[in-house]
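Question: Now follow the chain.
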Amino acid sequence: MTFVVVGMGLMAFLAATTLAIDVGMFMTARSQAQNAADAGALAGAIALGFNDYDDRSASGPAVQSAMHTAEANAVMHGTVSVTPDDVTFPVGPAGLANRVRVIVHRTAGRANPVQTLVGPLFGVPTVDIEATATAEAAPANAMTCVKPFIIPDRWLEAQTGALATEPDTFQMYDKKGELLANPDTYIPSGPNYTGYNNETDRGRRLTLRAGTGNNINPTFYYSLALGGETGGADYDWNIANCNTTIMHRGEIVIQEPGNMVGPTVSGAKELIARDPNAYWDTAKNTVVTTLGGQSPRVFPIPLYDPIFYEEGKQNGRFADFKVANWIGFFLESVTGNEIYGRIIPIAGIADSNSPTLDNAFPIAIRLVE
């Protein structure tokens, strides 16, 4: 009788142990499925924000990136099932269709359920595992790794009725300080925002030149003292490297004394040397780099509010700039004192403690569900 009791107890113990292994497998599978869904949603949001915001078709970059990334994350050594119907674009609380939701499956209905170990003894040979994640390409209102020079945000030129281009100059007041009858117009936010757009301006070529006097020209840059650091050596380093100081929308930044043309050119050349083979692919309208990931030659440039600066000129505030937005910039080349590059979408930071930026150029990618 003792042998019988011990044998039955051992069988029960083994069954409980094996069942615990099954449960552990289920929990691991569920965690891995969630990782696959998270990765797919983030990849879809990145493609939506940086490849094509308007293409939500089954063959578009957002859907394809979400599917392929999710499928690349195995669940219990098996591939998850994700179809175009599993990738959707829900509208967020702000009313923007800037979210990507992904559902991944390892289920009997998709012919890829997770196999059990002891389950067959109880008539449960497989279990279904699913996971859902939602990511968002949100407007960014803060930025880091900003280069220490600033250009004006774009305005509507009164004389032509078109968006400002070289060699336009922003003008609101006459020489006597009186408001012009027909001044140039800058709209900082909302549906009529006049500034740069990360889709329509993608690939636009800009030639940056050191600002002269206090004229507001679309491509004249002014040097900044990032994080309170001044001097040519620090300025040069901030161009060639990443200054982790976080800059916020609406922040007042101070001009670096002098035009810093030499350090600007020196830092730009050093930056090019870090990825000398990168180039702009005009067919794909993007940067090609052999380094993997983002080229160090792609960086954010802050944009200042031209109205704030112009009004400051009337009160003697020649060196104060208010951050209005940012653009992504691919540094192509340096010739003499001129810097050539292309506008490109860029990632930013969504700071809940900073005002929301309508029509933000940079995009913050984050999981929301």
The radius of gyration is 27 Å. The chain has two domains: 2-139, 142-361. Residues 142-361 form one domain.
